[in-house]
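Exercise 7 asks you to align residues with tokens for two separate proteins.
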Amino acid sequence: MRQALNNWIRSSGAFDGVIDFASSVADKTDPLAIASAFNDGDKLHPNDAGYKAMADAADLQVITGM
């Protein structure tokens, strides 16, 4: 269900823009999972490094218009 929703968000055109946080923390060998370097141990939530990777995925120029 999560993958279907993410695919729709990315491709529907219903949004002005999308920051793909899921792919920024995804395990390269299993894109449905958070990479071990980025999860807090429960394999569901990001740790500090995961939140940093998510922040790095955001283009501040696009967000702020500057």
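Second protein for Exercise 7:
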Amino acid sequence: MNKDEQSEKQPRIGVFICRCGLNIAKSVDTAALVEFAKMLPGVVYSEENEFTCSEVGQQSIKEKIKEHNINRVVVASCSPRLHEPTFQRVVEEAGLNKFLFEMANIREQCSWIYLGQIERATEKAKHIVNAAVERAKTLEPINKMKMTANPSVLVVGGGPSGVEAATRLGDLGLDVYLIERTPFIGGKALQLGSVFPTDDCGTCISPCQNDLHRRCFYRSPISHHPYVNILTSTELKKLDGHVGKYIATLTINPRFVNMELCMACGKCAEVCPVKVPNEFNLGLDERKAIYLPSNQAMPRAYVIDPQSCTKCGQCIEACPVDAINLEEKPREVTIDVGAVVVATGFETFDATGMFGFGEYENVINQLKLARMLDMSGPTQGKVLVPGEWAPPKRVAMIQCVGSRDPKINEYCSKICCAIALKHSIAIKQQLPESEVVIIHKDIRLSGKDYEDYYYKAESLGVKLLRGEVEEVSKLQDGHLKLNIRDEFGDLRYVDVDLL
């Protein structure tokens, strides 16, 4: 039967109800559902199976399609994410176009929700099957098409995910354009120092091609990969086209320093008179208007911040290779690609106004603490109290700030507990006499070896207090007072130097 014949024929729908053992049958009256389906307009056959996905169930579908001249199939069972490809294959093997198949989810969206409520579950299952039958009537056969795809890829985002994607795609022989809107690739990973649970360098990526071990991406093949073109200070302005053939319009913003000429000698920064807070180190130190954010920055060439540069020209005079051009303008380019990979990363939650963050200098976030703990960071790896710049004696960490909160984000971030444990271990190793307390709703660790962090923190004396912080206030001596409602409902007070 060709496409036109399948499309023009009056729908003859077969409905196959799955009991799924007791997963569905425990809540849904499947026999009643079969009888209901038989009465629906367009349905010529309906049956129930113990496990429709089994070989017996699949064979039954094939036989009934031929026996009853069925040209549309509805299977009421589990989620299409699980077995839609299975039943599409069965339908196709029976001679029908695989897109003349519709799946009704009466397990995850019905029986599991109404355990022990047979009447409600059966009634809802009837609605789901009825909707699937109505949809099946409108289905048309679709044939596969082969299209020639442009053998090049645009990767948007220069963090570890984007770098690894670009490297692996390049290893396959595809031309790759890796664009990053900031002047340097690396993303947040450059600021982390180390990552859990192995405490490896935050910028490591998996082994690529002939590598036997992981490498920091600034030592990986990405910088000199023959198939990867890195475009920093670049944004995707427009994307036109279709799958396999896209036209991407890119805006390349000026960095005012020629990357091919710059030797990263730093003489330009030495003479620059402008100092501004260093956003890379979250304001823990200052940088010049012409700067390199990190020794691990890539590309390793200075960049000028146009928002703070006064165009005094001193950097031009100091540059020994004439790499600086203060008159450089933005430019627009178009590239042809066959696919786009979006690896745009994330932004850190802004906790301003919560628990004194943004109000008290000694209330910081975990990313700022990570910059302190980084040996190449602004404090050379030392944990210091901002303002006092002395090691803290008591440190507290509040968990679930901005998450697991119906007013902000209901979900768990999944990483905050591990980050807090990692940093608390680092603090105790550096300052054994200090007190570190983690205030949490509960500790959630999901991953291999993550539990070891928990036990290691406990063995070092990190205190884990279950409860919620109700108020943070500043004492006259500059310390912070935390009012905590513990898991028993009792009010407790904790004084700390650093939060």
